[in-house]
Amino acid sequence: MDTAVEALDARHEIGGNNPPGKLELEYAASVVAEAEAFIIECVEITDADMANQANNLIAHLKAAKKKLGAAQKSEIKPLDDAIDGIKAKYKEPIVEIDGVVTSLIDRAGAWLIKERDRIAAEKAAQEAEARRLREEAERKERERVEAARRLEEERRRLAAEEEERKRAAETEQQTELDRVAAETAAAAEQERLELERQDAARAAKEAEEASKAAKAAERAAEKKPETAAIKSGETGRRAMTLRSYWSAVIEDESAALDSYKDHPTVRKAALAAVLQAANEEARRVKDLDAAPPGIRFVHEERPV
Length: 304
What we know:
Blueprint: H1 2-14, H2 22-41, H3 48-170, H4 176-222, E1 229-230, E2 240-241, H5 253-259, H6 264-285
Helix pairs in contact: 2-3, 3-4
């Protein structure tokens, strides 16, 4: 097998006409074939010669793996260099674009926030106006009811007075002067009754108009407000809008860890970190009895 390694090195030095990795792949295949044949033939290592042979095969397999890795790296390097060159060519223009985009997004975002606040303020003003008109309509309705009540009371009072005047006239207890005075007073009361009727009619009309205005304002206030957006003039382009993003900031590490100590993701990550720290501690102290609570150190021996 040492001869095969030497032959591989010699073919690299002499020729150079082989495709990249061809010699390494052939060498690896031959080493693997020899090792597999040994495994089939020797189910168990029974003497020092077989152990030495196995050890030599392991060394050659490791050498083959190393050479495959080197060949792979060598073959990939021109591609990596080409990719690095391509990335370098486009890096600066992309960075410039990102910078300009960020600047424009910042400005557009500031305008969207102002627009959102303007829409919210208009909506709040609309709702406030709807409330004011509703309160005004309710006040007008109370005035209408009060005017109707006064008109009804005035009608009943005048009806009672008219009934009393008629009874007095029938008994001829009124003098001519009293009759004239009563008729004059009745005419004045009728005029006042007409004024009350007009007030009631005006109050009813105002209440109806105020109710209509309040309902219209309430319907307008109930409509979904427009969204702050920057519409694109290009067909198919999505408009720019504000989007809500929620995130968290750790202010107290101990309290934060305690809050999420039972979360599956946190437990998994914490246990992985604990295991890494425990492995480092085990390699450092090399003492099975030095394991901290919750940890067990393990000592194994493996062939190398």
